[in-house]
Amino acid sequence: MSTLLENIEPKDEPKKVVKKSKKKSTSEKKTIVKSLNGGLLTRDFFIKNLNYLVFVTGILVLYIGYGYYVDRISRDIIDLEDKSRLLESELASEKSFYNQQKMFYKISDSLIVNGYVHKAPKKIKVAANKFKVIE
């Protein structure tokens, strides 16, 4: 009987991977030069698809403009929400003042019905020289 260890074959040593330096091929260099000097724009493929490229460029410009528009609108909405909170707090304070005044008039009306008349307090004027100083 053979054991399991005898059936296992030894692994081959891993091959050494030699990294090649990435150099631009001549066709890549030519493409960069053509795009810089405008030679790429005169190709048949580009000229045939010029309408589509203009359309895509227009869509991109609209998309960017829409982003700025949405940003401005969102800032305006935040400002309006802040102003509405301020106005709501003013409204609450004015309502409470109104309710206090309303209660005052209800009380005074009920006193008048019962025969009491609300009069403003009288001012008492005292001359300053008439008092004696107690020592």
Provide a descriptive summary of the structure in words:
This protein is an all-alpha fold. Helix content is 63%, strand content 0%. The protein has 4 helices and no strands. The protein has helices spanning 4-7, 26-37, 44-48, 50-113. The longest helix has 64 residues, at 50-113. The chain is rod-shaped and about 115 Å long. The termini are far apart.
List keywords for this structure.
mainly alpha; 135 residues
**Mean of the pLDDT scores?**
78
**Low-confidence blocks of residues:** none
Could you give the distance between the termini?
A: 132 Å
**Which structural class is indicated by helix and strand composition?**
mainly alpha
Q: How many alpha or pi helices? A: 4
Number of strands: 0
Residue share in β-strands: under 5%
Order of helices and strands: HHHH
Q: Summarize the main sheet.
A: none
Shape: rod-shaped
Radius of gyration: 46 Å
Fraction of residues in helices?
Answer: 55-70%
